[in-house]
Specification:
One of its GO terms (biological process) is cell-matrix adhesion. FG-GAP repeats lie at residues 22-80. It is a single chain. A hairpin with a 5-residue loop joins strand 10 and strand 11 (146-150). The strands form four sheets. The chain has a four-stranded antiparallel β-sheet with strand order 1-2-3-4, with no helix packed on it. Strands 6-7-10-11 form a four-stranded antiparallel β-sheet, with no helix packed on it. The chain has two helices and 13 strands, in the order αββββββββββββαβ. It is an alpha+beta fold. Bound molecules: 2-acetamido-2-deoxy-beta-D-glucopyranose (NAG) (2 copies).
């Protein structure tokens, strides 16, 4: 007891006490299977004060793309509204795998713009048959518009080739069915696109 008394002045000297007003408390609810409330962040813009709520499994169970809600602190009866950022997240010139990316897992204030940053760590980039799960982060303005997205460790797909396959379907060299099966498998493994691997079968 004496030890506690001796410690008290030291503790009190460093702290400022305050009360939490429970009768005025706002409780925002959302779908628990979408992990509503996994991350929270306050935001102030000219339209008022908001609570941002991350819901990284939004879309559960089929596709946990995730999203962020904005919850107005006034008027007291107002509901949270989903921002639908997941549809706007995009990195140009990259084959994106956005399924289950879990956007809204992190929320942080962006002091530079007054808006916020939110990330989806399971966003992946596809290069041919390779997947790089580098994650994606999006920059959102104070009026909740998605300004841009970036991935911290974007890969350069290096496997682009130009292929011309010349086939002889006369069966004189090898049974045609086996050749066709091989070609089908081969082409499925290529990352085909205007600025990627291009192929042209010749008969
Ligand atoms: C996303 O996750 C669900 C499990 O919730 C899984 O069934 C589904 O196959 C996943 N989708 C992809 C494209 O990985
Ligand atoms: C995407 O690719 C196109 C065509 O290759 C190019 O003109 C454009 O600058 C690229 N955009 C970015 C953001 O790299």
């Amino acid at each position: 007891m004496r030890a506690a008394l001796l410690l008290l002045p030291g503790i009190l000297g460093c702290c400022v006490a305050y009360n939490v007003g429970l009768p005025e408390a706002r409780v925002f609810s959302g779908p628990s299977d979408a992990q509503f409330g996994y991350a929270v962040q306050q935001l102030i813009n000219p339209k008022g004060n908001w609570l941002l709520v991350g819901s990284p499994w939004s879309g559960f169970p089929d596709n946990r793309m995730g999203d962020v809600y904005r919850c107005p602190l006034r008027p007291p009866a107002a509901e949270c509204e989903k921002l639908n950022l997941q549809a706007a997240v995009s990195i140009p010139n990259v084959t994106e795998i956005k399924s289950n990316m879990s956007l809204g897992l992190t929320l942080s204030r962006n002091a530079g713009t007054g808006g916020f940053l939110t990330c989806g760590p399971l966003w992946a980039q596809q290069c041919g048959s390779q997947y790089y799960t580098t994650g994606v982060c999006s920059d959102v303005s104070p009026d909740f518009r998605l300004l841009g997205s970036f991935s911290p460790a974007l890969q350069t797909c290096t496997s682009f080739i130009d292929v011309v396959v010349v086939c002889d379907e006369s069966n004189s060299i090898y049974p045609w069915v086996a050749v066709k099966n091989f070609l089908e498998k081969f082409v499925q493994g290529l990352d085909i696109g205007p600025s990627k691997t291009q192929h042209r079968p010749r008969r």
